């Protein structure tokens, strides 16, 4: 692995963008194998100059041709999303909301999109979903309590700290950033405080049950790819 990285980092025939993409893939593969790669001397980590920055943007290779999934795959995607969101929505409207404890939030749509449309992605795996539904909401609550009169600062801190922590523990989950931002910017849920975390965890549990059912019924789907990263 180190030989490949060294060869790529010093090969002048490979463009900056291609080199960066290949290095990212190799480093990700190394992390999955349990290897910790230190930055190589041949890799330049300095900030780009204006000219090289513009050149990098103009040298981005074209994307692959878009491929539409077959109808059966789309059917199971629709069915899983519908089952998960309708279950959470019904429980929220008829059971929890009358008691002042709604459990459905906008970020649930993003989580459903990931877990049913792209169940093979790293960000769709159970541990990533659990982290995204637990840590960011707590961070959002803390930021709002620290800066109740400065919503823009609380929002910026909630999202940036959440994303940084998820990246630090290698459990990135995009809906998690939305959940942190949602709490800070939605005054209705401010009175819930840490009940908001319980609500997101409860919706996560329902989402996970639906994902385990509808992502494993068809032979074309397997979920999860792993439970905990070091069990891969």
Largest sheet: none
Helix content: 55-70%
Unreliable sequence segments = none
> How would the global form be characterised?
globular
N-C termini distance = 19 Å
Strand % is: under 5%
The succession of helices and strands, N to C, reads HHHHHHHHHH
Please compute the radius of gyration using only Cα atoms.
Answer: 21 Å
Mean pLDDT: 81
Secondary structure: elements and pairs:
Layout: H1 2-10, H2 16-32, H3 50-58, H4 71-96, H5 107-117, H6 126-132, H7 135-146, H8 151-168, H9 174-185, H10 195-214
Keywords:
232 residues; mainly alpha; 10 helices; 61% helix; 0% strand
Structure description:
- This protein is mainly alpha-helical and 232 residues long.
- The chain is 61% helix and 0% strand.
- The chain is built from ten helices and no strands.
- It is globular and about 55 Å long.
- The model has no long low-confidence stretch (mean pLDDT 81).
Summary, kept brief:
With 232 residues, this protein is mostly helical. The chain is built from ten helices and no strands.
